[in-house]
Design goal:
Layout: E1 15-19, H1 24-35, E2 39-44, H2 47-57, E3 61-65, H3 71-85, E4 90-93, H4 110-137, E5 141-145, H5 158-178, E6 183-189, H6 197-202, H7 207-211, H8 221-232, E7 243-246
Parallel strand pairs: 1-2, 1-4, 2-3, 4-5, 5-6, 6-7
Helix pairs in contact: 1-8, 3-4, 4-5
Length: about 260
C-alpha cells in the first residue's frame, strides 16, 4: 500500500507531472511517486478535488488545473512547473475519458468521438511536444497510460479503443523521435479497481471477479503505479518504445462460453 504520510520528506530533486491525477490510477501514481520522494505536479480538470488530494499528499505535491486537450492550458501549466521548480524529469500522461456507458456506433456523435480523441490521444502529444525540451535537459522519461482495450474490446467502445490504440503507436513514434535523451513507454492496465476506499468497502468486488484473473485478483492502482515508477527510474534506462500490460494475465486467457 502507498504510504500517504511520506509527503513531508525532503524530495529527491526530481520533478514529475502526472495528468488526470485527481482520482483513480492517476492519483495512485502521484501518491507512489511522492512516497519515493519525487516532487509531483498533479493536473486535472477537477480543481476542487485536485487541490484536496494534493494537500493530503503533502508538501511534495502541487496541483495545477489543466485540460490536456487545450494547448494554451498545456503551455501555461508547463511554464508554471518550470517557473516554480526549474526542471522537469518525468511526464505521466494518464488523463483520459473512459465512459463505461458509451453510445452505440449508430448513435455515436462526432462531438463525443472528437472529445475522446482530443483528451486521450491529442493531449499526450501536446504534453510531449511542450515538455520535450525540459525532459531532454535531464534525460527524462515519458509514460503513457494506455489500456488493454487497445487490443481487445467489448461492445460500443469505438472511441476509447481507437484512442488507446493510437496512444500505443504514438508511444513508439515518440520513443524514436525523442531518443536517446528521452525514453517513452506505455503501460496498459486491465481491470483495475480504482474506486475510492469508501466505494470499495460499500460495494466490494465478488470472488468471481477476482477468480477469473490468472493472477487470482483484480488489479489495484498500486500495481500500475509501481510499474510506472520503475519505468521512470534509472533502472529502466535501456527500456523505451515498449508497452507493459498490467492485467493479471487476462489478455492471455482464452475465454469460451460454457
Amino acid at each position: 500500500m502507498i504510504d500517504w504520510s511520506s509527503g513531508s520528506k525532503q524530495h529527491n530533486g526530481r520533478v514529475a507531472v502526472v495528468t488526470g491525477a485527481a482520482r483513480g490510477i492517476g492519483l495512485g501514481i502521484a501518491a507512489w511517486l511522492v512516497s519515493e520522494r519525487w516532487q509531483v505536479v498533479l493536473t486535472d480538470v477537477d480543481q476542487a478535488r485536485g487541490r484536496k488530494v494534493a494537500q493530503a499528499l503533502g508538501e511534495n505535491a502541487l496541483f495545477i488545473r489543466m485540460d490536456v486537450a487545450d494547448e494554451a492550458q498545456v503551455l501555461a501549466a508547463v511554464a508554471q512547473v518550470l517557473g516554480q521548480f526549474g526542471r522537469l524529469d518525468a511526464l505521466v500522461c494518464n488523463a483520459a475519458i473512459a465512459d463505461p456507458h458509451n453510445p452505440t456506433l449508430e448513435s455515436l456523435e462526432l462531438q463525443h468521438w472528437n472529445r475522446v480523441l482530443a483528451v486521450n490521444l491529442t493531449g499526450p502529444m501536446l504534453l510531449a511536444k511542450h515538455c520535450a525540451p525540459y525532459l531532454r535537459a535531464h534525460n527524462g522519461a515519458i509514460v503513457n497510460i494506455a489500456s488493454t482495450r487497445a487490443h481487445q474490446s467489448e461492445q460500443d467502445c469505438e472511441a476509447y479503443a481507437a484512442s488507446k490504440g493510437g496512444l500505443l503507436a504514438l508511444t513508439h513514434a515518440l520513443a524514436v523521435s525523442l531518443g536517446p535523451e528521452i525514453r517513452v513507454n506505455a503501460v496498459s492496465p486491465g481491470w483495475v479497481d480504482a474506486r475510492d476506499l469508501a466505494a470499495r468497502r460499500a460495494e466490494p468486488l465478488s470472488e468471481a471477479d477476482h477468480a477469473q484473473h490468472p493472477a487470482g485478483r483484480v488489479g489495484t492502482v498500486e500495481d500500475v503505479a509501481s510499474m510506472v515508477a520503475w519505468l521512470l527510474s534509472r533502472q529502466a534506462g535501456f527500456v523505451t518504445g515498449q508497452e507493459f500490460v498490467v492485467d493479471g494475465g487476462m489478455t492471455r486467457k482464452m475465454v469460451y462460453a460454457e
